[in-house]
Amino acid sequence: MNTKVLFLLLTAVTLQVVSAQRGVRIGYVDMDYILENVSEYQMANELLEKKVAKWKQEIEQQQLAIAQMKEDLDNERILLTNELIEEREVEIQALESEVLDYQQDRFGPQGDLVRQRSQLVQPIQDQVFNAVQELAAGRKYDFIFDRSADVVMLFADKRYDISEQILRTIDITRKKDQREGKPSALDAFQEIDPELKARQDAYDDKKSERDSIIESKREAKLKEIEERKKAYEERRRKMLEEREAKRKAAEEKKKKENGEENSEESAETGTEENQ
């Protein structure tokens, strides 16, 4: 029993001495640098930026449409009944709320942008993790840190940076996967996200329905305005006709009165001449 204990103690001491002689091997990777130099990440990031630009454009279009609706309401308020004004205001408020919801769905803390960025980075992070594990096992590293993570590194000697080695390992793995027909990180990113697709389909359906309703209301509004315009023109025409009729009647009356006065004057003149 004592022999076994002594053997274990000697083994532990020997391992500590060997470890002390070898020293601790440390390396670090710069994840930001790696992402910048992985072509698949760059291509996927470009696709994401195009999506973001499209989302922003959709929001801007909706905001412009709302601004136009407000302007139209201000211009037509004098022609509308209180019920129509209230209906238009409720419609504008509903659209404003819808745009805010859409902004949250796209750019909120749990929105599509956050989800897409996670889907974009995750495959590359997995590749880096696998490459780090392989390199650490092959070259006997004790610690490998991520310089771009939350670990505070006040100074890091460049000779301990193994980012280039990780990139070479990723490139070798990528070429091997291509030969074996395995999907790449870009393929994984381009896969359709069911939740994102469902949200986009719902938005497209709602937008199509809303556009149809807006168009119907716009046509009804134009028809109503046209009818009001015709009614106004008809009232104006009648008013002008009545005014013209009164003017003519006044002229006729005046002519008649002038004619009677002339007749009286002629009669008086004839009487005087006879005398």
From TrEMBL:
Residues 38-105 form a coiled coil. Residues 260-275 have a biased composition (Acidic residues). This is OmpH family outer membrane protein. Belongs to the Skp family. Keywords: Coiled coil, Signal. Pfam families: OmpH (PF03938). One of its GO terms (cellular component) is cytosol. Residues 233-275 are annotated as: Disordered. GO terms for biological process: protein stabilization. Gene3D superfamilies: Skp domain.
